Structures are given as C-alpha cells and as structure tokens.
C-alpha cells in the first residue's frame, strides 16, 4: 500500500511539474509579447513561486486542520460513547486496530448516534410511564417505583415500571369497584336511618364526585368502617323495632285491642326508621297507661299466659301453687308487676330448655295418640269402615308403638346432659321424667282396670235384672254360650228364684277372634319395666280366625290372664266386649 501511495505521489509530482512547466512557458510567451524586462520577469517568477508555495501551504494547513478535527472528534466521540454506554448499561465499544482516523471517527460517531437515540427513547418512555404512574399513585396515595433521578433507566427497570403501573391500575379498578358498591350501601343505610352526612369524610363519600375520592388504603379502611358502623346501627334498629313490636303485640293481646286498630297502626308504622321507633315507643306507653286503667283484665290476661307457660314447661300443681300471687284478688300495680316478672321468668326458662321441652312435648303427643288408638280399639263401630281405614290405623299404631320408646330415650339423654351440665334436676310435672312416664303408665293401667270393673258390674247388674224380671237376654243362647262365661252360673235359690252366687265373679277379658290386629304393647318404658316378658304375656300375632267368622260377628270369648303391667295382643273389638 505504501508503494502504491509513493507511486501515486510521484505521478502527481510529475503532473504538477509538467503543468508548472507548461504554465511557465505560457507566461514566458506572454511576457515576451508584452516586452517585460528580465528583471521584472524575475519578480513575476518569484510571485508565481510565492503563490504556489502559499497555496500548497494553505492546502497542507487545511488538511492538518482536518486531521486535528478528526482526532478531536475521535476523542470526543470516544468519551461520549463511554459515558452513554455506562448510562445505558451496555458494553463499551472496542474499535478494531489499524483503523484510519477517518474510519475510526466515523465508526465512533455512528455508535454514539445510535446509543444517543436509544437513550432518548428510554428517557421518553420513562417520562410517559412516570406520568401514568404519578396519576395512579396520586389516586391510590402510594409511593412511586424507585428509579434513581438523572439516570437513564435500563430495559429491566422499564419493564418493572410497566408491571408496577399495571398492578396499580388493577388495584385502582378493584378499589374503585369496592368504593362504588360501598357508597351505594352507605347511601342506603343513611336513607334507612334518616341520617345525613355529618363529617367531611362522609360528605366526600356521598356528595363529591366519584373520581375525586382518594382511593388510599386509609380511606378504604375508613370507608369499610363507616359502612360497618351504619350496618350495625341498622341491625340494632331492626332488632329494637322487632323487640318493640313484640312488646306492642303482647300488650295488644293482653288488652284485647281490636284487629282493625292493630292493622291501621302497623300500616302507618312499617320498617325501623327513628320515626317508626318513636311511634312504637309511644304505643307501648299508651298501652301501659291502658294497662294501669284496666289492671284486672290485664292481670287475668297475664294469668292466662302464665297458665299456658306452666303447661308448656310441664310444671306440677305444687310448683304452680308456689306463685301465690296467682290466686290474689287484690288487683294493684304491684300485683301487675309481679305477674309481668313471672311471665318473663317463665319465658326465660322455656327458652333455656326449649329443646328438652320439645322432646317431652313430642313424647306427650305420641302418648295421646297411643291412648286414642286404644280408645278406638274399644269402639265396635270401627268395623263399619270398609274403606281400608283399619289397615291405615294399624300402620299408624305400629309407628307410634315404635317411636314412643325412642323418643323416651332421646328425652332421657337430653335431660342427663342438662343435669350433668347444670348440676340441677330437670322435673316434668314435679318429678324426674322417668318417674313421670311410670306414673302415666300406672294411671293408664288403673283406668283400664276401673273401666273393666265397671263393665263387669254393669253386665252383672243387667243379667241380674233380666233373671229377676224374666226378660229376654240381649243375645241368643247360642251366641251367649259360645263364649266363656264371665260369671259363675247362677244357682236356683231355695225360694225358687234365680240370682247371682254369693261368691265374687271372676273377671275375665273377652276377645273376639274374627280379625286379629296387634295393638300396642301395654307396657311402661324400658327403663321402668319391672317384670320380664314371658310367652304367656301376649298372643300369637297371626292366629287364624275361626271358620265362618266375620268383621261384625264376635264368635267367642276366652279367658286370658290379667296384664295390667303391659300391653296385650288382643283383637280390636275384644276390649269393648270384655
């Protein structure tokens, strides 16, 4: 390359020499024609030489100046490139060796321009993102994403800033939605409570534009607290209104207020606003004044309510007699107050033991159903029902028979838990539940024995009258003698008359054998049972009927042992004819 440059320089020198020679020749001819003297020609030749030297010097100076500028540009671009590379967090450019000054300058300048453009773009993005972020931070009252000031953000920082802005936008949308929903609730609560915004915060929530509300964490917490406070006030007023209405209804019932008057008041005072609460309180006060004016009637109403509560709580007569004021005829305000307090105590007792009392009530209902089924079993007219009623009745009877001991166990278990928890006995009709159940069974068996004895006495008296008067028996001899006699045969007296033997008649229950139904086992509860079951205690369930038997014909009676301690498996009509 050096040889080529030297050759080019020699060629250029030859061309310059040839051009100078030709130019000097032309100048010589011109000077000849003009007639310029030799001395003047020397001066002119010096001028030409001076001009040529000055021109060449000028050209050299310009090129040297260019070289200097290029070197300065290389230095400046190198410094700028180093600075921008650090700001952009990119590797510093390392130029190749052997590059000319011009090529190096161009390469450095190009890279500086490229990095400067990237820096400008990043700063522009940062400015735009910062503007969006600042708006969200102002709305949410949060801290902006930190990027050191007067620095160029890296691509990673810009990406994190975008993610931060996206998170803020999502949070703002969520808070805005919560704010709008809560604002509607607050306005509804204020309207229901007849309240107006008092504090500046409440006015900001209710009255100001929705976009102006600062969705900061503190404001959102205060918003939820305000909503919860108003909701609690509303719930308290609802509960208070319900309690006041119960008091009003109770007073109305005791004062026997007309239904039309009640309906008119309720129509004008619905809801739970302060105005309605005031009206309810005024009505309670008015009713209390009427109560004082009608103490006797009110006390009698309280006594009726006390009686109902006694029955629901299964209080014994002895427990009821302890409330001596119940029998007082001195109708005063003190007596009225005492009755009010007694009602409150009984209600509290019932509410505290509601579950157990409901179990006892269920047992009572099943017990009454069982007694009703036995009563029907003794009614001969039940066989007139040919519509399948007997089968349905038998199903229900078996269901009651199955449920009664289960409910009894449930009551006993609930009472046991109550007594273990409270350390106090739970009484039903003044005694433990199992004793109460045993007493019911004993009472039931005694009533059965008394009824059986009454029927035997009535039948004996009827037979005695028939024998004395010679009247015709109600049944034919054939039908009568097909059964086991309930009395020993009468003997002819010495005076020729007939009458009952002096020995007492043996009572024997009489059972028809036409259709068999299993009646509930007459027994006390399992926990109260004293005698074990034996095969003789009940009859076979599927004993076949006698030939020719019918639903309305009782063909025979048979003696069975007395089973006062338990149920007997008998025909449904046998008890009525015993």
From TrEMBL:
GO terms for biological process: mitotic spindle midzone assembly. GO terms for cellular component: cytoplasm; mitotic spindle midzone. It comes from the Eukaryota. Pfam families: MAP65_ASE1. Residues 523-532 have a biased composition (Basic residues). Residues 554-565 have a biased composition (Basic and acidic residues). Residues 445-578 are annotated as: Disordered. Residues 566-578 have a biased composition (Polar residues). Coiled coil: none annotated. GO terms for molecular function: microtubule binding. This is Protein regulator of cytokinesis 1-like isoform X3.
């Amino acid at each position: 390359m050096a040889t080529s440059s030297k050759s080019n320089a020699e060629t250029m020198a030859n061309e310059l020499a040839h051009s100078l020679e030709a130019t000097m020749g032309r100048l010589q001819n011109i000077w000849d024609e003009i007639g310029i003297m030799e001395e003047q020609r020397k001066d002119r030749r010096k001028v030409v030489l001076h001009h040529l030297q000055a021109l060449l010097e000028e050209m050299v100076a310009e090129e040297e100046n260019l070289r200097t500028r290029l070197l300065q540009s290389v230095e400046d671009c190198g410094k700028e490139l180093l600075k921008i590379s650090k700001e952009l967090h990119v590797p510093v450019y390392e130029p190749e060796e052997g590059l000319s000054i011009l090529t190096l300058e161009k390469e450095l300048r190009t890279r500086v321009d490229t990095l400067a453009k990237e820096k400008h773009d990043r700063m522009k993005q940062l400015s735009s993102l910062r503007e969006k972020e600042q708006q969200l931070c102002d709305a949410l009252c949060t801290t902006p994403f930190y990027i050191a000031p007067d620095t160029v953000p890296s691509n990673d920082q810009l990406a994190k800033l975008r993610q931060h802005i996206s998170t803020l936008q999502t949070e703002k949308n969520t808070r805005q939605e919560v704010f709008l929903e809560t604002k509607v609730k607050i306005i509804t609560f204020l309207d229901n409570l007849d309240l107006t915004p008092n504090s500046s915060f409440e006015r900001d929530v209710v009255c100001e534009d929705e976009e102006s509300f600062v969705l900061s964490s503190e404001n959102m917490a205060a918003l939820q607290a305000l909503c919860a406070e108003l909701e609690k006030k509303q719930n308290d007023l609802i509960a208070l209104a319900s309690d006041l209405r119960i008091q009003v209804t109770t007073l109305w019932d005791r004062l026997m207020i007309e239904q039309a008057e009640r309906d008119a008041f309720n129509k004008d005072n619905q809801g739970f606003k302060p105005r309605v609460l005031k009206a309810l309180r005024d009505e309670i006060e008015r009713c209390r004044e009427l109560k004082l004016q009608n103490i006797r009637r009110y006390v009698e109403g309280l006594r009726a309510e006390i009686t109902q509560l006694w029955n629901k709580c299964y209080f014994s007569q002895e427990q009821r007699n302890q409330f001596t004021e119940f029998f007082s005829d001195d109708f005063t305000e003190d007596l009225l107050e005492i009755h009010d307090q007694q009602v409150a105590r009984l209600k509290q007792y019932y509410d505290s033991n509601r579950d157990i009392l409901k179990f006892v009530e269920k047992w009572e209902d099943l017990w009454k159903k069982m007694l009703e089924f036995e009563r029907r079993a003794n009614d001969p007219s039940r066989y007139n029902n040919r519509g399948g009623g007997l089968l349905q009745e038998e199903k229900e009877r078996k269901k009651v028979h199955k449920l009664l001991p289960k409910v009894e166990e449930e009551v006993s278990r609930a009472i046991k838990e109550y007594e273990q928890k409270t350390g106090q006995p739970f009484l039903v009709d003044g005694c433990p539940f199992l004793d109460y159940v045993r007493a019911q069974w004993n009472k039931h068996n005694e009533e059965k024995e008394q009824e059986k004895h009454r029927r035997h006495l009535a039948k004996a008296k009827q037979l005695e009258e028939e024998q004395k008067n010679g009247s015709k028996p109600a049944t034919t001899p054939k039908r009568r003698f097909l059964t086991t006699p309930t009395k020993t045969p009468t003997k002819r007296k010495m005076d020729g008359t007939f009458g009952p033997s002096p020995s007492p008649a043996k009572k024997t229950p009489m059972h028809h054998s036409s259709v068999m139904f299993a009646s509930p086992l007459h027994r006390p509860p399992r926990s109260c049972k004293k005698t074990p079951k034996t095969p003789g205690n009940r009859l076979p369930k599927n004993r076949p009927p006698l030939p020719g038997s019918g639903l309305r014909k009782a063909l025979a009676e048979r003696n069975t042992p007395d089973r006062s301690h338990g149920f007997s498996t008998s025909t449904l009509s046998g008890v009525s004819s015993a």
